[in-house]
Amino acid sequence: MDKTQLASKIISFWNMVEFLDQKEFPKEKPENKKIVRDEQKFSRGEIQVKRRRVINLFHEITPNTDLEQIFKEDKRVFLRNQWLSQKKHVCIARIKRNMCESKIDELLHIQEYEGNKDQSDIALIGFRVSSQGQYEEKTFSLSPLIWGIMMIYKYGSEARSKITQEEYVKCIEIYEQYLMSKGIVSAEVMNELVDKINQDYMLPLFNQKAECKGVLIYHLYATKEDMEKRDGNSDDYSALARSYYTNDLLLVKGKIESGAFGNYNKMQKNVIDYIVSQVEGIPDREDKVDIRMERKVLEQVLAPDKMPIGKWPSEYTASFMQQVAINLALSSRNSTYPIFSVNGPPGTGKTTLLKEIIVSNIIERAKLLAEYKNPDDAFYECYFHCGTLKNHGYDNNDCCYYRFKNEKINDYGMLVASNNNAAVENITRELPNGENLCKGLRNSKDNPGLEEIEKMFDLSKVTNTEIYSVKVDQKKSEKISIEKPDIYFSWLAHRLLTKSEVDTEVFREWGMLSAPLGKALNIEWFGYYVLNPLINEFMNGRERAKHQMKYKAAVDEFRKQLHLVQGLQEQMEQDSCLEERYNHEIKQLNEQINLLTHKISIAEQNIDAYRHETLLNVQQLEQVDTEIARIRAVYNEYTEKENVEKQHLDSYNVRIQSIEQCVIDLEKKMNLKDNFLHLIGKKTERVKNLEAAKSYREQQQLEMLPIQKRLAEIEVIKNRLNSEWQNQREKRNWITNNQSVIEQKVRNSKVSIVRFWEELEECRRKVALKNQKYEKDKQSIKEKWNAPDEEFWDDYYSDDNKRNIRAQIKNIWHSNELDRAREKLFYYALQVHKEFILASKAVRSNFVNLAYMWNQRCNSKGDSVRIIGKDRNDAFSHLFNTLFLFVPVISTTFASVQTFFRDIIEPGKLGMLIVDEAGQALPHIALGALYRCRQAVIVGDPKQVEPVVTTSIKHMRKIFEDEILHPYIVSDMLSVQNFADKINPFGSYIVDDEDTGKKEWVGCPLVVHRRCIEPMFSISNQLSYGNTMKNQTKKPDENSEISKCFILQYSYWSSVTGNEISTSSKNHYVPEQGEKALKIISAGFEKYNGIPDLYVISPFTSVVNELKSLVMDRMENTKYKQEAEKWCRDNCGTVHKFQGKEAAEVIFLLGCDKNSKGAVDWVKSNIVNVAVTRAKYRLYVIGDYEVWEKNKCLKLVYERVLECKKDER
Hints:
Residues 322-608 form the DNA2/NAM7 helicase helicase domain. It comes from [Clostridium] polysaccharolyticum. The protein has 1209 residues and is of the alpha/beta class. Helices cover 55% and strands 11% of the residues. It contains 43 helices and 26 strands. The longest helix is centred in the middle third of the chain and has 101 residues, at 685-785. It is elongated and about 200 Å long. It starts with a helix and ends with a helix. The relative contact order is 0.11.
């Protein structure tokens, strides 16, 4: 299988598990009961109460219930709410979930201890009826859990192929047909239906019958408009399967299988990697970087050019690893890994991290918005297709919707999602909290410029105002217009968070930075308190013209401040390159020095060579002179020989000449006779004399030949000697000339050496000057920008805790001047957003259509609007991305994502997803949000509360086990955080088990802890984080108010023995321990003179419930009775209740006796870690130490508490 095929298989598994994981039997909340009672009293004329827009009714169903009669009676009683909801839910036949768990364990041969027995109920049957009691077709639902157990009962290990939703539909068809055949659902029909299902399911499985008892749930609305607005979003109580995520899971699965999702961009590939991250055989990332240890990477990540352009207003800066995480999170948008995870142990500043990301996104978007001269130039006009009014729209005025021309604007919307309602509320309330913001702006002495920032963000000091409509009296509908101080839609933020329109002189919500949406009630509140007032009061034509001028001014101010910030950042970036420039310059100088040194060496070598050459020349000159002398001597010798031979030759020549003359004379004397006689062979005397003369002449000539030959030979020798002499002379001249050249070269080399030495000394002087300047500049830059030096890095990597903390709390590469400038830029970016929104007709139109889509507004004709089909799919993402301009951060629970974004069916339509408390969320519940977003920042801690999985599902899912799904089934700790950490290349290792040294890879870690003092910090640090956290929590001043309220002087372990009140029902409450806890609680009420800042946390639900009963019983007749009720409700629970919360003091009530080994072993490190880190200053552990010392986590707690107690003393 390739990755996409694996992903499809895994999603199918998740979808089936989600389907089987049945929700609890519907319960009516106490506050709703009170509302109904009050309305009944009103109808009887007993009291006066405000009319409710909707009343939620829960009616008990018995075997004799007449549904139609209930509806008639309610219409008679609730006269002010006569509009019945379309959905009327019937849930009957309660079953204990733990009974199902036991059956699953029996069928699958599972023997595991579960610490908290699930006491909840589930419904066996669910369906809907009309107001006449008529069954609504296709609404029947059989308990998926019971059905799944039956499949295992019938088919055993083969059940995995049978447990499908298609098979489920087939199985319930018989009951669907039965109800359809009956029409009206009478008491008799319900009883018969229950009997049928008892026969088919309950008796075979449990050998017992379910009773025909349950609940009828529906709503009564005040008006038709209220019904149309709210009814479509009401909970589907009778659909027994959990359906919060199934549609999204099937959507993603379908897109993957069709090839429309998975390989088109980095985010899609990363989502596929996320899904398959646990599959065995898929290799771990090869590019993992232990971000805490790699200095080179840290320097790159924290380089000035990576600094976010803005900063959250505060005197404080992010710590070292916080800034690392911030920079990596912001750069992940453009990286190969757009899903980035942060590991945030308790108290390490996850909210600070999120604030900085939020600021950066707002400013980056403002840069894009500021490119437009007119805000409406940023949009393309789009048309609906299914409306009945102008241009097929839904309103004649706002008949169109608009989308951004620049898609990049959509990158910066921020959706915060969590499995934890408290986490969603915390971030939503924290961001607009002006009081907390201003607390961080008060220390102007150490941070010059903070006073100016405070004037921008403190509502009591700002000069900007806006006119808002407010109520003078909550009981009256009359409104008046009042000028209110305004930073960023401040009064609207106040209205939303307080759910009040009543005027108040002082309010602290500084800006509309965030809003909780998701569920229907939140959307309704947002529409009523924010969206419609914004449209009606600010976004009309007259106001728009005014704000277009303001928009231009806001853009000018923003650009001016942006230029200032960028200038400072460029200066810092240049300064950060000091060492690089210095090294480059020193390298060049050293290269020059080396070159000059080499040149000097070469010149000196040349001089030595020239000297050697001179010696050779002298030797050669002597040899040449000797040879010349020899040649001359030989030449002279041959000259003398030549002269002698010439004399001999001359003597012969004289004789020959004499003979020649004689011959001539004789020939002249010859006559005819002599000639005639000679012809006939007779010679005359004269002839004879002539022949004798000629013969003598010839003899002499022959004798001359040897002489001539010798002379010729002498001439050749002399010529050769002369040539040799000439050569030697030339050689001598060459040697002489060469010697002159050499002498000149020596002189030149000596001159060069002097010059080279001068240049060398100059280079060395420059090096010394640059060294001095570098040290001076380095110190100056360090002071100016808090730049890191070798001392910093030595501290960072030091094993000495104090030195390491000194580095960890630092924020390198920043300055007060730059921080203040970045904070101002944030303010001006908000003003750009504000005026862009108010100056844009397109934005108004999108807001109006969004209100229509949410059923929060009537159109200009006064009609309710229902945007349908393709129009919803086409428009919603554009409308919602426009809303992000107004509310930069929108939060929701994961359970609401599927419904909230059901009209966004294409991937990557939204910007950044921020997952908070990701360690608590099951991996699959984030899939719909990941699918729709372009980037994700996952923040959480897998070492705290793990995701909640019911025991029944935990065990039942084992039926699906195979080689691929094995890792997804065996672990109870898998979470969104685990999955994101696994694919995050930037993280670190922490020791998971001290005994084995096993290490676990986590996402980019935050390490500076600022919540708990000792011993809580050390317990958590050693137990869960391999001692990687660094504590910077300050002890409270002895004279502070909180110190005066401490119940006990120091943290301690009270070892209280006793027996559990029940062993058969897994009730681990020990009365003696409860009494000890009660004493501390009672003392707390006295110390605080009311509700103490004290939590009671226990691993076991049974212990919590028993303690609550004890407290309520003992305080029944005290002055703290009402406070005790609230305290028990809010401050007493298991660890799951308190994730993300903190208190000054915590009682960790352990329970258990010597017979509870299974329970003691069940308490793992994550439970202990969360419990102890809820306590900021005092931890009171109550439990039998002899029982709990067998649990190594609690043994560590005991040891650390004991050490701390000794230190305190």
